[in-house]
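# step 3/5: fold
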Amino acid sequence: MMIALISIVLSSVSCKKNKEAVEQPEEVSNIKKDIIAKLPGQFPEGLAYDKNRNLFFLSAINENPSIAAIEYDGNAKSFTNDGGLKSSASFGLEVDYKNNRLLACTNNKKSGNVHIYNLDSGELKHSINLSVLLPEDSKFQANDLVVDSQGNIYVTGRLENCIYKIDSELNTEIFLKNEKLIKPNGIVYNTKDFLVVSLTNDDSKLVKIPLDNPDSWEEVQIEGFDFVGFDGMLYNEKGNIVAISKAPEEGQGFAVELSSKDNWSTAELVMKKIIRRSTTVAQVGPNEYYAVNQDWKDRNGENWVLEYIKL
């Protein structure tokens, strides 16, 4: 197994996905039905919620990306500072409260990376290039990520058909690469030491991957739902998975809630709700969520909507 230590320390410069049952903040009194943030050219993919500050982080897939912080009234400002690094489009985000970090998947033409920011200041602390682990590959996309109870980070390499691991000392390795692990996308961590990952492709699957034996991964059998792949995923306070899925109708998507009685060997549909086409979901309170609307049509759009969802 190829292992590398890549840690670039720069001195100048959701809900959670990592628990089966997540302690949620009390309902916030100033929640609006939808939040509209004016962020010209942000072109977001990832969304995360900081329950301690009552604000959202929104990623950016554009030429001059900066992760934005958005308040409930729609007030938005740049949060991250990447210093002298060349621009890297940001995708999936994760708030790591235990280690006071904001984690972000970032990508450019040559590499898929993880950026680690100080959660208080937005200062970039580490930039980790994952692509060096796959020197024979030519296409990379660090798509989504999650942190486990030991501080290890797991990252889906969507174009590489793999999952990377960054340990608590920032050593990197290929955690799992398999020709049948096609286009891994959304990812969550279960405290019983396994991952649940969406393979989003022409034959989409939800799979369970044990941390102690990743090669023994297996498909989660889902009852009552035609699975077409999840983008953003999280665990809610009930231990259920809530995720965003696409719909066949133009401009529409689904917010989906699944439950399991056997540690995610099987799952069943709890609820499915039609929403606008979206990528990622964040939880703000019991049964309350926001999804970032994204139909991939207007890269230069000025106003971006966080759609309120009640499940």
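# step 4/5: annotate
The CA atoms of residues 41 and 300 lie 4 Å apart.
# step 5/5: archive (pending)
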